Amino acid sequence: MKFNVIVTCDKGLEEICMNEIRQIINKDCFIYHPGAIYVKDVREEDIFKLNFLSRTIHRVILLLMEGEFKTLKDLRNKIRQINFKDYIEYNQTFAVECERTGEHNFTSVDVERTVGKVVIEHFFLKVGNRILVNLKNPDILIRVRVRHNRFWIGLDTTGKESLAKRNYRIYNHPAALKTTIACSMIFLANWNIKESLLDPMCGGGTIPIEAARIALNIPNRKFFMFERFKFMDLDKWKKMIESHKIRNIDYNIRGFDISPKHVEGAIKNAKSAGVEVKFYVADATKEPLDSDVIIFNPPYGIRMKNPRYVEKLYMKFCENAKKSNWKRMVLITASWDKFKKYMPNPKREIFCMNGDLPTKILIYEK
Ligand SMILES: C[S@@+](CC[C@H](N)C(=O)[O-])C[C@H]1O[C@@H](n2cnc3c(N)ncnc32)[C@H](O)[C@@H]1O
Fold it and tell me: Torsion over CA of 160, 164, 168 and 174, rounded to 10 degrees?
């Protein structure tokens, strides 16, 4: 069986995600809308692989229908053409979640209710039973995205929780970086496992921990919603998971933070994530930053400290970085102009959304 899928990711980082998709399943893909990538003609094992092996994907949605619509009634009539019983068993529960962008005379809850009624009606007419809704823990999660006069609807193959949620964080740093953005930065740094990597302001350790998990080939998680899809050959999935090998290699990954509390938290997180990373209490404006690759997420002066503190921090950090030995440096900040004042001319800069905060990833080469 072949499917079309929509892969969701961080807005602004679609190119990096598309590179990862091409690498994992060797399929071409294109940006469908910000934060969403379209991949045509994928096999079920490709869906398993994307969920299991990717680092930058949020969700993989198996597309049921897409197109234009005028009114909610029109949308309902279009969705009525989907043969839901090909994908959902009569005794499975389901839920519908909708995200909406644009001006409409209905809400996303109205869309959820409408689609829910269509599914119930479909089972009543075609199978003769009343399929049950379970909003908390459904067997099947139908996702609908409405963008202005366009929509898509599909089955979430990932699950209620995005793949960005890795479930190893015991210590929650107040400004923790999203794991998928951390991995995108690691890919943008073109880091080779043989090279040393340093995060000089590591907080709860997201970047070093994600890098170590990439080095060791540790998957994000092992449980996904597609395991409840009776229309897929799940034996292929069982074989994939059984044959997956964790790499046994040495790597040189370090993290510094000025706060002993965060360093202690990072050590706990690394242990929970199943990796060893060397974390140190150190001041990134003073300690030599000698490492092949430097990847970090400094304070932005927006969430954590006042802007003047950050300006001084950036100035002193850049003075130290200029004296240190490194090859490539990648950072993310919402105060990119301040950073570029002290280290102008990055090789590349990428605008991306860090949650609802506009940020830039700056890439430097020495
Ligand atoms: C945005 S947070 C990093 C969050 C981290 N990426 C995570 O996911 O948990 C920035 C960190 O920089 C640290 N920091 C600030 N000034 C520093 C300095 N001079 N040297 C080292 N770390 C510093 C802060 O303690 C804070 O934990």
Answer: -110
The DSSP H or E segment spanning 105 is: none
Q: Which residues line ligand 1 (CB under 6 A)?
A: 173, 175-177, 200-204, 206-207, 256-259, 262, 283-285, 297-299, 313
Contacts of 15 (CB under 8 A, 6+ apart): none
Whether pTM > 0.70 for this model: the answer is yes
Residue with tokens 């997956």: 244
Which residue, among 63, 74, 65, has the nearest Cα to 106 in the 3D structure? 74
Angle formed at CA 38 by CA 245 and CA 226, multiple of 5 degrees: 50
* Arch. (CATH architecture) of 2-156: 2-Layer Sandwich (3.30)
- For the stretch 148-189, pLDDT in tens is 999 999 999 999 999 999 999 999 999 999 999 999 999 999
Strand partners, 62: 5, 155
The Å distance, Cα 340 to ligand 1 centre, comes to 19
Tell me the DSSP string of 304-347. SS-HHHHHHHHHHHHHHHHHS-EEEEEEEES-HHHHHHHS---S
CATH number for the segment(s) 179-217+250-365: 3.40.50.150
